[in-house]
């Protein structure tokens, strides 16, 4: 190879032999290019120096972007912007490490913590207007006592009126809530006749009147279209048994020589049982007796009903009933407490099915007549039967 073709003499700083080893580059002894070699080389293009920041592009955009620990040009250029809040927009230079703001103020160490107010215990409510309930109860008691001890026939009339009003309330609620048309006319006439027959002819007359009332219900309903016949007559037969037939046992108690005292014992034990259950259950009741039927009744209330009724039964049988003893009164009070509670639960089941709270509004603080007869009706045959067993029919 000809060294002169590259425009530089071989002795001027180029590789050559050496005594110490392979070819080594000799250090230049003078100018890199002399006049003779400069004529044979091509000129080097001049490249202008470009500053690291600024320049024409920076002049077009304005001031150069600042650099530093919070503004990293290479990171903005090579990595995608990761803040979702700027999605779809041109992100501006933001600090990489944004300090989160604390929305909750720091507690003041100097300010003592304010004590939280304690919830006040709610006062237990009786659930009804006690003033109206007591006033109506006293008024009914006066009417019953006056008619019971002065003219028995008037008391039988009071029973018949209560039966007719109770039938009207029951049949009206059945039609309103279920569309069941139990025939009221044969029920009212047959119910009143049933009470009178029980007072005049006893159990035999009561059963005959019950059978005739059922036949009248079946025939009366035939005067209307057959649609719903079965449910209407079924409801009519249920109403005839539930209200007037059970009430007939009160009239049969009145037939005895000490009839008024037997009826008074029956009324007193039922009222005392209800009062004991209400008072004890309201004050101490915690365990539900039948929450799906009557959430307000408790087992503690049932125990109160039993205790009150047994004490009242012992006193009544010892001092009011001829030939009665206190231990018979204990059994009578226990039976009354159970039957009265079952009767109350039975009507509560009916009202649950109908979706109503009371059967009527005739008696302020009590509801309707049926709301007062609910515990009396099933208790009447129980008291009548036990009195006949203990002291005879009189």
Index terms:
disordered N terminus, 394 residues, globular, mainly alpha
Residue runs with pLDDT of under 50 for 5 or more positions: 1-39, 50-98
Number of helices: 12
Trace the largest sheet across and list its strands. 1-2
Q: Report, as a whole number of angstroms, the end-to-end distance.
A: 158 Å
Largest sheet: 2 strands, antiparallel
Order of helices and strands: EEHHHHHHHHEEHHHH
Task: Tell me the quaternary state.
Answer: single chain
Estimate percent helicity. 55-70%
Rg from Cα: 53 Å
The percent range for strand residues is: under 5%
Assign the structural class, choosing from mainly alpha, mainly beta, alpha/beta, alpha+beta, or little secondary structure: mainly alpha
DSSP, total strands: 4
- What's the rounded overall pLDDT mean? 79
Tell me, what's the shape?
globular
How does this structure look, described?
With 394 residues, the protein is mainly alpha-helical. Helices cover 57% and strands 4% of the residues. It has helices at residues 35-38, 55-61, 73-78, 130-150, 152-178, 184-221, 229-254, 259-284, 299-319, 326-354, 369-373, 376-391, and strands at residues 15-18, 21-25, 288-290, 294-298. The strands form 2 sheets. A two-stranded antiparallel sheet has the order 1-2. A two-stranded antiparallel sheet has the order 3-4. Strand 3 and strand 4 (294-298) form a beta hairpin. The N and C termini lie far apart (158 Å). Mean pLDDT is 79; it is low at 1-39 and 50-98.
């Amino acid at each position: 190879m000809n060294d002169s073709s590259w425009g530089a003499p071989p002795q001027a700083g180029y590789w050559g032999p050496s005594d110490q080893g392979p070819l080594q580059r000799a250090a230049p002894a003078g100018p890199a290019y002399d006049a003779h070699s400069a004529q044979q080389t091509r000129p080097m293009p001049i490249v202008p120096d470009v500053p690291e920041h600024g320049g024409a592009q920076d002049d077009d955009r304005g001031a150069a972007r600042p650099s530093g620990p919070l503004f990293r040009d290479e990171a903005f250029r090579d990595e995608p912007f990761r803040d979702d809040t700027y999605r779809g927009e041109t992100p501006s230079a933001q600090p990489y490490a944004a300090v989160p703001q604390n929305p909750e103020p720091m507690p003041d160490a100097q300010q003592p913590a304010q004590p939280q107010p304690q919830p006040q215990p709610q006062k237990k409510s009786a659930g009804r207007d006690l003033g109206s309930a007591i006033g109506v109860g006293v008024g009914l008691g006066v009417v019953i006592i006056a008619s019971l001890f002065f003219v028995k026939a008037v008391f039988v009339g009071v029973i018949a009126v209560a039966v007719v009003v109770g039938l009207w309330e029951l049949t009206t609620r059945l039609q309103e809530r279920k569309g069941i048309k139990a025939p009221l006319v044969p029920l009212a006439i047959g119910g009143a006749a049933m009470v009178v027959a029980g007072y005049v002819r006893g159990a035999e007359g009561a059963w005959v009147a019950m059978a005739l009332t059922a036949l009248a219900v079946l025939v009366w309903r035939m005067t209307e279209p057959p649609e719903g016949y079965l449910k209407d007559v079924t409801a009519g037969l249920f109403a005839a048994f539930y209200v007037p037939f059970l009430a007939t046992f009160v009239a049969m108690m009145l037939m005895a020589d000490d009839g008024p005292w037997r009826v008074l014992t029956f009324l007193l034990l039922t009222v005392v049982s209800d009062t004991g259950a209400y008072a004890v259950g309201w004050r101490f009741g915690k365990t539900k007796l039948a929450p799906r039927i009557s959430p307000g009744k408790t087992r503690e209330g049932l125990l109160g009903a039993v205790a009150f009724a047994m004490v009242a039964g012992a006193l009544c049988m010892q001092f009011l009933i001829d030939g009665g003893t206190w231990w018979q009164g204990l059994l009578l009070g226990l039976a009354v407490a159970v039957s009265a509670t079952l009767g109350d639960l039975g009507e509560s089941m009916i009202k649950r099915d109908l979706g109503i709270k009371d059967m009527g509004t005739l008696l302020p603080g009590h509801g309707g007549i049926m709301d007062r007869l609910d515990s009396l009706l099933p208790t009447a045959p129980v008291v009548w039967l036990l009195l006949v067993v203990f002291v005879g029919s009189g």
